[in-house]
## 1
Amino acid sequence: MADTFTPQPTKCPECGAEFYRDAAWKRICLPCYLAKKRARNPNARGDICEALYAERARRRKAERDLGAAQTRVLLLEVELHNARRQTGIEPQMLKRLIQLCHPDRHGGSRAAQTATDWLLRQRDREPCHS
Ligand SMILES: [Zn+2]
């Protein structure tokens, strides 16, 4: 079934070379495919050139898509990094909350300890403002 095909690096069953199988019908690598074609019809130069051009165009498009995807991944990583560092609580407010929550002010209460621990973790995640 063509719709379940996943493009992936594949070992050519003819020569053992690894090639990128980007279509279900491509069972063998391009050099083997061209060699077979040439063997069948030695005068089919036009077809071979066409196949090469098409293959090169496909590879270039794949490289462009890969580049775009890598850029997207980088941008998302930066976004994630920034999101992880932000609590949405201003540093001054965070400081005030830590003071107010401190277990010493609440008879060593477990709830105060839990809240303080959490607030301290938020403070430590804040980006360094130099
Ligand atoms: Zn091959």
## 2
Amino acid sequence: MTRSQNNFPIEERYDLRLITTFIPNKRYPVYNWFYFKEGFSRDFVEYAISLLGYKPRVILDPFVGVGTTLLYAREKGYHSIGVDASPLMVLVSKVKTRDYNIKSLREEAQKIFRVRFRKPNLSNISSFVKQFFNKYVLEDIVFFNELVDSIEDEKIRNFFKVGLICSSSKVSYAYRDGSVLRVVKKNTPPFRKFFKRFIRKMIKDLEKVKFISPEPEVRVGDARRLDFLKDSSVDAVITSPPYLNKIEYTKVYRIEYELFLRGEEPNLLRSFIGLSKVEEDEADSSMPPVARAYFKDMRLVLREVKRVLSEDKKAIFLLAGGVFPTGVIESDIELSEMATDEGFSVEKIVALNKRVATRNRVEKIGWARESAVVLKT
Ligand SMILES: C[S@@+](CC[C@H](N)C(=O)[O-])C[C@H]1O[C@@H](n2cnc3c(N)ncnc32)[C@H](O)[C@@H]1O
């Protein structure tokens, strides 16, 4: 264990680097339904719970993403609550963490895949979306989406909707490159077969997981304002906010919103942390304005987390340093300083990964660390 300049204890566990990524989830049923590059793994949640050092009653993840914290909590018998600003993420998290009647899912699948293809009307699909699909594949997707929308039971409808979203992303030409969607053409399999196989896999996966605790509460919301939660109502927080300077990925779900969740697209500037503009008079600090906006929001998040966490309990934040032409901003240290101001004590910072930080892609200017910050109320 070393100490930072400001005396925060730092433990290096670079051997655990992989758990901060989504990669280990690929081998876990249900966890792997929606590939989320910015997500962490089931193994990270397991490790975070070991860092708590007590058995939590209710775990909150205020940046829940695709629901990995909640899934693990359900498997291990902890109650949990998830919040995310993105309706797409909330839909995915919900669908992964519900109880289903498998027989009804199988019957619905049979019904859907029995319907003969009818050419749908693509006139209200934008040319932006059209460029990412083979024409016949897109017709199939829109055809199935109409069928899925007509399913009466909300739980079953959402299940098929997520299956459709995952299957479509696998056959699309969209390649997510940071905040940009690029067209990368490839051979695509017949969609009907592909979708059918994916739904079959989802149903099989449900038979492999065993949930102990009840369905978690998952809702669209803002981690800066958790009004629906009473003071001291949770006893652990395990979460990973958007990373400093890597927030733009929230914009790459335009295809999903246009095709499957029309009208539900979040107002990014209002809903997502770190995207609001800082006032002119605040922009004179040593930090770039984007970093100021980010930490201003993270302070509000810390304050809310402090309010809803009961006494003597822990919050674990996974986050990474931000690389700017002026140098690396150590997010773990910044967060620890703010947390101290807000009345937390910093138990330790566990450094889990580090990447070379460069200026103009060649000149090395330091290391950007990815760490779990362990805070105590
Ligand atoms: C790094 S991801 C979380 C990944 C998650 N740990 C997982 O494994 O799926 C950050 C998430 O924060 C969400 N987000 C951004 N601003 C938010 C806000 N103000 N309140 C709640 N969620 C927000 C994004 O939609 C994104 O899903």
## 3
Amino acid sequence: MSETPDSTAPRYEDDIYEEAANWHVNTGEEKIHAKRVTGKWRKIKWITHSIWLILFIGPYIRWNGRQAVLFDIPNRQFHIFDITILPQDVWMLALVLLFFAMLLAAVTSIAGRVYCGFFCFQTAWTDVFTWLEEKIEGPPAKRRKLEEGPWNSEKARKLGLKWFIWFLISVLTGISFVAWFTDAYQLWHDLLTGQASTTAYGVIALFTAGTMVLAGKLREQACFWLCPYARIQGVMYDKETILPTYDFNRGEPRGRLKKGKVPEGQGDCIDCKQCVAVCPTGIDIRMGQQEGCITCSLCIDACDAVMEKIGKPKGLIRYASLDEMEGKHQLPLWKRPRPLIYITILTLALGGIFYGITHLGTIELKVLHERAPLYVQLSDGSIQNKYRIKILNKTDKDFHVKMSAEGIAGMELKGAEKPLFARKGSDSSYTLYIKAPADAIKAERTPIIFKAVGIEDPTQQATYESMFFAPR
Ligand code: SF4
Ligand code: SF4
């Protein structure tokens, strides 16, 4: 006999519809004024954000009388301490980009949007801007009141001061960005004397406006609407990815404290909404994982503080995977194909970068054998081959090199009797000849090693293997 459905029991669809009705994503209609919270993750966030200080300090570090890191676009050279990267080495740049893309993918598949919450420049600048906002306008309630209230002298003074300080930070951001592409001290001199290039002024203006709009005005909306990474992060997750997660089993049914205690039969969530109040993107993590979560972990700090106050164990909101929440066994990292693939690719890219850096000399030698004719026989019976030599000087100083070649007994290198000049940051080409006695040549093709050694600095060396051709 079939059972008669209980018409008073809540149906699955009802739950779904209720959840949908309560579901809320702030799509820009309201400005988020998040409460600032203290705690472990807040401290970590400041530390990771401070990595961006390098943007402001980096260009002023000198190395061997030059800017330590300089992206010299006009001369098509990148200087990183002792290393100079020329367009010929651009494959290394591709590997660096691949490395960072795979690092981002690997970290996302392991621990979600860690980059967004802790390292992203948008999050970092917004954090600094909202910190200043709180210092000037006060806590969230006061800020909302000021925002909704009529214009008066206090509102004008506070908003004026806030935007002025934001403007100064934004200008400094623009100048600091440009300083990586030109001599930083010279740039300041040119800016202060009004002699900087139109490009410099244009880029600084662009960055100033961009910083003010993104960090001051758009804030978390930039993450929602503009960031492509926010759109694709979902494909990098799996059920083992750990994310800030509300422990539904422990927290529900939620309810308010009664007489300072959690009533019998109630979950540990006391519905204080502190996790929502501190969220910079204004979401309620208790509704489950959401697109707007930048995994900043501030809701963990907020909830831990609440749990401490009510004498419950911390971790009602914590880093956990979907599998952990469902009581399943968490797979070890080495059994998870997705992060493993990302880690393999990034390791290969890292290997390539390491190879590139350790094999990047200050001098590069290329030898092209002239093919028409392959060889000539001279009147004394000896055989002569012609070569086009290219010496690439990767330094920012001119120097001279001594050329030599070996491979055949008694051979003679002609055209390099005097040191050859190598122009800084470019190729210098020369035509050289090798003349070898006929009786010393044992084969139709004989390998020849060309070697260039710096005169001013003999540690500058490069070799190239070419061929010597002779009749059968
Ligand atoms: S902070 Fe913790 S206790 Fe308060 S509403 Fe959020 S999850 Fe519940
Ligand atoms: S839900 Fe928590 S982790 Fe996610 S953005 Fe909000 S505060 Fe940060």
